[in-house]
Write a structure and sequence with these properties.
The structure is a single chain. The chain is an alpha/beta fold. The chain has a single domain (9-302), classed as Alpha-Beta Barrel (TIM Barrel), CATH 3.20.20. Helices cover 39% and strands 14% of the residues. Helix 3 links the parallel strand 2 and strand 3 (96-99).
Length: 303
């Protein structure tokens, strides 16, 4: 949800849409610097989350951060920006910061993964008393981005000595684009069995629920409205009824309505409404998976 008009306005927008969980940017996602959080707005944000019973709430880190870079200046800037993201999330009482692991600028993937782990470790050491988690986002695998295989996430976690402050956010669009075919029952089962074996279901803290404009293994990250893309509705229905994921947030990152409709105002976005209603309908339906169809879900959906 947009934070236009103040961080706390995101909660007002989420409540208007009937959201049960929330993701925000605590500063412009395409800029290095952000203006300091207003203490009064921080207080109102935290109070409004409690009043609206919206939880969990997470932030998404700036897209400019690249913890895998070999360029010293960019690396230092990225680490400092990441620490700032942790500080902002801590002030707001968020569960964690969703982070794209990074993109290789030189060297091998293994070297890039080591750089990512070292940078996160440095940030954790700098904020040793912080409770805020980093939620490593599994990526679509465009170009030389890392994190598109479960093995990548496992390697980062291992090099951080299995820190309890490291969680994972899985994006349904990215899963398909990177080659995990969750559109079939067998592919769905195989994907999450592999995730549990390599990373562990307990590390999973959130889903980004996005359909995909591009097919399996395209390695192209293009989000589509729920049920309108190459994933279709079935994988979302299975997720919503999978007992392993009960209580985890499904956060949509689908296209918003044109800016003039929502700029600065607290109004319902028709596209958000449509996607959220689709997820709620699927949550109320039977799952369709033999092993899951009799089990209910308790998932939190959010814009």
């Amino acid at each position: 949800m947009s934070v236009a008009g103040g961080i706390s306005k995101a909660v007002d927008r989420a409540e208007m849409h009937g959201c049960e969980a929330l993701q925000i940017f605590t500063k412009n996602g395409n800029r290095w610097q952000g203006k300091p959080l207003d203490p009064g707005d921080v207080k109102r944000f935290r109070a409004r989350l409690e009043e609206a019973a919206i939880r969990p709430a997470v932030s998404h880190a700036s897209y400019l951060i690249n913890l895998a870079t070999t360029f010293d200046a960019l690396r230092r800037q990225s680490i400092e920006a990441f620490i700032d993201e942790l500080d902002r999330a801590e002030a707001l009482g968020l569960l964690g910061v969703v982070l794209h692991p990074g993109t290789c600028t030189a060297g091998s993937e293994d070297e890039g993964l080591r750089l990512i782990a070292a940078a996160i470790g440095e940030a954790f050491a700098a904020r040793a008393n912080s409770a805020t988690m980093v939620l490593l986002e599994h990526t679509a695998g465009q170009g030389r981005t890392l994190g598109y295989r479960f093995e990548h996430l496992a390697a980062i976690i291992e090099q951080l000595d299995g820190s309890a402050r490291v969680g994972v956010c899985l994006d349904t669009c990215h899963l398909l684009a990177s080659g995990y075919d969750i559109t079939t029952e067998s592919g769905y089962r195989d994907t999450f069995e592999a995730f549990d074996r390599l990373v562990g279901i307990g590390r999973l803290k959130a889903f980004h629920a996005n359909d995909s404009k591009k097919p399996c293994a395209s390695r192209v990250d293009r989000h589509e409205h729920i049920g309108r893309g190459c994933l279709g509705e079935a994988p979302f229905r299975w997720l919503l009824h999978d007992p392993r994921f009960r209580g985890l947030p499904l956060l949509i990152e689908t296209e918003k309505s044109p800016a003039p409709l929502r700029a600065g105002a607290i109004v319902r976005d028709p596209l958000d409404v449509r996607n959220l209603e689709t997820l709620r309908r699927l949550r109320a339906a039977r799952s369709g998976l033999d092993a899951l169809h009799a089990l209910g879900g308790d998932h939190r959906v959010a814009g």
